[in-house]
Amino acid sequence: MTSRRNVLFIMCDQLRFDYLSCAGHRRLKTPNIDRLASRGVRFTNAYVQSTVCGPSRMSAYTGRYVRSHGSTHNGVPLRVGEPTLGDHLREVGVRCALIGKTHMTADEEGMERLGIARDSIIGVRIAECGFEPFERHDGLHPSTSYDPDPAYDTYLREHGFGAANPWEHWANSGEGENGENFNGWLLVHADKPARIPEEHSETPYMTRRAMRFIEEAEAKGEAWCAHLSYIKPHWPYIVPAPYHAVYGKADIQPPVRSEAERLLPNPIFEAFQQERYSKNFSRDEVRETVIPCYMGLIKQIDDQLGHLFDFMEKRGLFENTLVVFTSDHGDYLGDHWLGEKYLFHDVAVKVPMIVYDPRPEADGTRGTTSDALVEMIDLAPTFLDYFGGKAKPHLLEGRSLLPLTSGERTSLRNFAVSEYDYSGDAARLKLAMPVSDCKLYMITDGRFKLVHGESLEPMFFDLRNDPGELRDLGREPSAASDIERLRKMLMRWLALPNNRITVPDEWLTEIDDKIGHFDPIIGSGVLIGYWDEAELAKQQEARRRWLARRDRK
Amino acid sequence: MTSRRNVLFIMCDQLRFDYLSCAGHRRLKTPNIDRLASRGVRFTNAYVQSTVCGPSRMSAYTGRYVRSHGSTHNGVPLRVGEPTLGDHLREVGVRCALIGKTHMTADEEGMERLGIARDSIIGVRIAECGFEPFERHDGLHPSTSYDPDPAYDTYLREHGFGAANPWEHWANSGEGENGENFNGWLLVHADKPARIPEEHSETPYMTRRAMRFIEEAEAKGEAWCAHLSYIKPHWPYIVPAPYHAVYGKADIQPPVRSEAERLLPNPIFEAFQQERYSKNFSRDEVRETVIPCYMGLIKQIDDQLGHLFDFMEKRGLFENTLVVFTSDHGDYLGDHWLGEKYLFHDVAVKVPMIVYDPRPEADGTRGTTSDALVEMIDLAPTFLDYFGGKAKPHLLEGRSLLPLTSGERTSLRNFAVSEYDYSGDAARLKLAMPVSDCKLYMITDGRFKLVHGESLEPMFFDLRNDPGELRDLGREPSAASDIERLRKMLMRWLALPNNRITVPDEWLTEIDDKIGHFDPIIGSGVLIGYWDEAELAKQQEARRRWLARRDRK
């Protein structure tokens, strides 16, 4: 094991926590991800901080809750100056690079106000959420609002897939039996193969780009953190052959839903049930067409990770590289009569989280699972900890997972929190809510789960007795005391944000010992509330004695 | 009235709301401030957002609560990129200048991380909390941690008051009868005159600097906002002749306190009662020595404002200048067995707030008082409104006061909030609290006041039946339902922060009309959850119809 350390931070997009064979999926086989789990710890209660790409990712990349970083919706720029994982890692000499998706929007207005040039090194980092953009690829390039320059398009053209928009025309469209080009955005075509040989589709392409980055960093002898960020299994639900045909409708699991969920549901739940995507995913035909494709996309990722892990193995990188496999949120896929994500049932708010910690200290936990409550914001402090950086609890709201991988601790916190702001959804208009009041909070202590929103009844689930979350107890008198308990927990969390980001706690505590002996501020000459010379002299004498004692030590 | 508009934003430091003759002080005479009140609206329930200089001022200068701007203690740098009053006013072509104190600490680390040079124009503004520093003067220059370069010191030296530290040696020391130099930091010397002729002391000096700024801006034909920010009546409690002898112990008002307040007080209240400054200010001798000086300092400010207002009158500036007179927090002065500020009794958390609005629309409210709940953060949006800028409710958490000065409305909000973080006080050690848990919140609906802190019993006052706040009802069963009501109000406030600062609400609402007719996102080519071509075609047709209807209009 060299003294140099690295981090490989793999994120999928919209991958449910339960769509891996190691997580109990009965038909999907993910042997490579399972292999990683067998060498690390698989967290079974990993919560994202928001149930939508951008906000969840901004939490991952800052180590801070959405209420702190303020990027509340997809497309809301992350404010300039919000410190990122990349900033913290650069401080300890680590190159922190992006290969794939971030869903970051740059705060152009803030940059202009601060006079930061977009094309300066610092400007590029700020615009890319703190990462060095080895390759940025958000994987959403509809022709109508087309970004003409993704490197992936150039790659496709170079390989013979020319088109005004090769991403859409080839990689994300479906091929008919007679060569038709079917619109890959439409769910009905999810059973068709993508119009491209597998090796040229996004997942293998991005995997090779990650290898390229690693080779380059290793050649330079750099410590690195590589964020390999796949767009898949996120829609467009379309996968190249042979993966379009690996799974069929016999392989999909039955939907988790009950008729009771449609009977007087909580108004926010009802509003999302009424969305087109929810109505469609509530139909068997849709599930049976899309889910096999979704599984194929995961299978493809697993195969690609097999190549990547072999590549790392050959180079001895498993000896000094901490590897994380996770996702930015889940996908309802028709469970609870919903499609997409946004709300807080486990299938949306929980993600896979596998942490392979190469240190010998972690040998005792290899292949285990942990049901500790962990949060996506734990990754940034985990990486900083792994690289030997000083903890920044005033800033990073998550906690290092290393005490869990080393077996030193079995839990980190009493509750996990997630947020979603529905002011950008039709639900705001349906519920006639002002924009300001659309913030939803989920809090769980592992046993119960509360969803709190302004002017809304609570949603409340007993996760032990109702793991499928089919019975909302929000109106049950018998649940009132538990609801109140979780509401108090939420209030505590709301009342204690980490907003003092410019100075650490030590800035306050370094004078603690002095305070017991004298008024420490007199050292600065600021004398508050002293009556006369005699009173001041006593404090000055106490100070002299304390300083002399300290100097003797 | 010219079409150009200006704002004169006068702030005192540590001036209680009730130490003005217009506010009912029985002996102190402040005819010039009263004159301003007679031409404007005097707000009797104006709350600061924190009871200590720095955090309160950062709220004033950003229009945001402390939980939002994060400068929780004196000396905690305001994070780079936090948008300020100066930023908003510059956008509408207004020069926003500082003359006096801000208590700002620059976020040097943040500036370095973003590559912003400290000596660039933008760098200077960021370091000065968004202001152009026409003259920065924080008025706290103890010799031991001496800033050798305040312009005021140069001024003193030029006028014959040479010393290593002329601010301390002359302007803030007391003159004995036999020429002795008494330490002005000590309360016992508050009855002595400062060692300097009145015209050279800080208040008249700063007043002249404000006139100088106004002359300069007027000569250039600029619209301006001048923040005239006096250090006084803040300590060192020392005032030049004749003001040291204008008031005597017969002029001071009896302390507002009761023996009951010392009998099993709330632990946080008890901890602050035990501070040296509190014990000293609980002694009659101290109050009788210091308060006449405090009153003299206010009297001096009033006289100087007389000169300033005459100066403005001569130039016709009352025709187009909105004038605010306020303070950053109060001073216990022995009330409630406390000295200094920090806690939330009205004498600490309420401030004078007089708003002179020159517009004819405000003629109907001249000379009136308003008991509406207003907050210090209302000033920034008031100024922006006055200059015709677009409201920024996603960013500015206060509200313009102009609907109150124009008589259009009589109230703005149902509650006011203030915050104080006691992790920098001995109270944290006394109560054995972790740094993270030391945030205190005050919320009042005008009738009741709740103080909430983690792991603390509530403090609770009935402001109508106990205006002196002598009976803490926090443990009274009869108050339980009102306590709960205010706690819910606080939870609502905590749950709905304005954290999405990079885009306005319109970013979300501009598609509201579309949403009623079609899926607006299809315009971008991103197609979420459509089953097939037919379903998509319907939406596209609905979109075409909507666009055609819009174009016909």
Automatic annotation (TrEMBL), chains A, B:
Gene3D superfamilies xref list: Alkaline Phosphatase, subunit A (3.40.720.10)
Listed GO CC annotations: cytoplasm
MF (Gene Ontology): metal ion binding; sulfuric ester hydrolase activity
Protein name, entry field: DUF229 domain-containing protein
Coiled-coil residue windows: none
Pfam families: Sulfatase
Record flagged with keyword Hydrolase: yes
This protein's UniProt keywords: Hydrolase, Metal-binding
Keyword Hydrolase among UniProt keywords: yes
InterPro entries: Alkaline_phosphatase_core_sf, Sulfatase_N
Domain of life: Bacteria
Species, as recorded: Mesorhizobium tamadayense
Record-annotated Sulfatase N-terminal domain positions: 5-388
